[in-house]
Design a protein that fits this description.
By secondary structure, the chain is an alpha/beta fold. The chain contains 19 helices and 28 strands. A nine-stranded mixed sheet has the order 2-1-13-12-14-15-16-17-18. Helix 4 links the parallel strand 3 and strand 4. The N and C termini lie far apart (54 Å).
Length: 561
Amino acid sequence: MPRPITDGVVPWPAAEAARYRQAKYWQDRAITEHIVDQVNRTPDATAVVDGAVRLSYSELLRRVDAAADRLTELGLRHGDRILVQLPNTWQFVAFTLACFRIGVAPVMALPAHRRHEMSYLAAHSEATALVVPSLVKDFDHEEMAALIAAETPSVQRVIVLADEVHPGHIRLDDLFAPLDDPDRTRAQWNAAAPDGTDVACFLLSGGTTGLPKLITRTHNDYAYNAQQAARVCDLDTGTVYLVALPAGHNFPLACPGLLGVLITGGTVVMLTSPSPAKAFPVIRAEGVTHTALVPAIAARWLDYQPEDPADTPSTLRVIQVGGSRMPNELAARIRPVLGATLQQVFGMAEGLINMTRLDDPVEIICGTQGRPMSDADEIAIVDESDHPVPQGQSGFLLTRGPYTPRGYYRAPEQNTKAFTADGWYRSGDICSQDSQGNLIVEGRDKDMINRGGEKISAEEIENFGYQLSGVEQVAAVAMPDPDLGERLCVYVVPRQGVRVTLEEFTAIMLAAGVAKFKFPDALVLVERLPTTKVGKIDKKSIRADLQRRLDDGRIRGTMTT
């Protein structure tokens, strides 16, 4: 039987929690209560658009409540965890809200995750159910879910977004079928709303120590996250927000994301691909005003020339860009080419969100990653001894505040490293700060690769390398890339007389069911790996060697020295 959800949640200190309540950052209400408020104000306004499907606020709530009812009929209860891997569809929105409605915590997996990641997440969270699509780009998610359910004792149900499902599985769309008495059901769930301190969902870390850690987000802190981001982004009932990045990411989910838009009364447009060829016609047809992108996608939008000039976006007011640092030169092109205000967003699923403001001068918008979105956010830039550095000097970013949790879920060992004794989160980012409080992100302290906004643990990749019998030592490092920001390169010391190839390395990962965005892009064979004075592998020297190889044009798949 799964352990209680409270077993492993790190609470805020009582004094801090009281302060956040007094300041009204925390309102002790479930996220769905804020959305029900909006249903009461504008029941007939359009809430969600997904292709030909258009749901008003009242219709969205009816489907949410229907799913809430049927999830409880299936045996799910307050405090259960459910692993969710769904594409950007209206069903993602309605199902997530149904979980919030009854106090079931969705664990937000990503569409690219495969059996390796999903098995771990199901086991670590002790998920009661899995929710997946069927076949997406020739990958059978339903079959994967069946295998995971068979090997994970806690998993009792597999729910599938498909017209037809395997015997014993449940059609997701059946959960949304109309109820006989929706008003009674609505009143029932209104009266049984979760507490603000209850877990709303689990987000995934981009951590460095193997597979992702679970980030606990409560109804109090995550509602404030979405509401405050909506205020900074100047959302209103006329906002039309395009969700083109995977909706399970914190950025398009609540920064302000679809939750911020629904709480404010705007319209959410779901799209399964951010490619400009698909996005531009939708932006034009729906009058999209806001969206969120990563730098690599923003670059594709800038370079795209639609066949029909009429498809060029004209309604866009704000393009948020985050996930990794955007080059200043690219940032400067957003307004002239796409006609929208760029809003740089630098943050983390662990909490702190920084944004440039819409009325900032161009040099701030294009040259910084913004400042904390809340007056209650605390940040410190410190040296290796945790002493504050002078303004303008680079250091390690620490943060805490009303939407930055105080620890990972069921991860005491990692928490002692990631959080200070007095609750500061060590983000791993190297930053400086200007006189107005804007941050300039200059790199990472943690051993992690940021591939187009997807975070990859070097340690996780290295562990796969050591499964190859011909590998004596392996080190994974970030490789600069003009499109994605970083790609992944592995340095390998082969055993004597053995030649290790990139294909062999990726085959091991493919067999383990690893998400393909984690596959190395290049492999370098070397006689030895450089070490520091204390005998650790010297990643700084490896990255310098890699840069020389890039400058010399020697990066071509598998290489030797």
